[in-house]
Amino acid sequence: MEKHFACQIDADVHAMVTGGSLGEASTLSFEEKLDVTRIALNVADKRIPVLANVTKTRTTNALRLVEQAAKMGVQGFMVMHCRQPMRAKRETICAQLPTMVYSKLDAAVRYNGVLRVF
To answer: From CA 107, how far away is CA 96, in angstroms rounded?
Structure first.
């Protein structure tokens, strides 16, 4: 994994998102997601931003990941909608770091210090 991250940085990527949208989000355990993030941060060594992907079906689990990744030193987050419909429920994640919303759902999103996905 270290070689893979180093190769990306050497190829002049502008940032890395750990635990992306191709299956990692749903197959890695909580601890494995943090391990991948830790490795990416170590390899990047502040040369490029490292963002942690946050894809959870429960807000409390998402907040736990946000808190742990922020403590590790990520520079931001990519928040994805969960695969379950959330039309009747409002989910809110508060983060003091930059946040990118990645969603294929029709959603109204506002960002004023608080990220709201409806």
So the answer is: 22
| % of residues, the chain, pLDDT over 90 | 39
At residue 41 the predicted structure's pLDDT band, cuts being 50, 70 and 90, is very high
Cβ 58 vs Cβ 86: under 8 Å: no
**Tokens representing 61?**
């689990």
List the domain boundaries for the chain: 2-117
> Furthest-apart CA pair in the chain: how many Å?
45
CATH class of 2-117: alpha beta
Residue (of 45, 54, 65, 52) closest to 2 by Cα position: 45
- Amino acid identity of 80? M
d(CA 93, CA 91) in angstroms, rounded, equals 7
**Separation between Cα atoms, residue 23 and residue 14, nearest integer Å:** 22
C-alpha dihedral, 109 to 76 to 34 to 43, nearest 10°: 150
84 residue type, one letter: Q
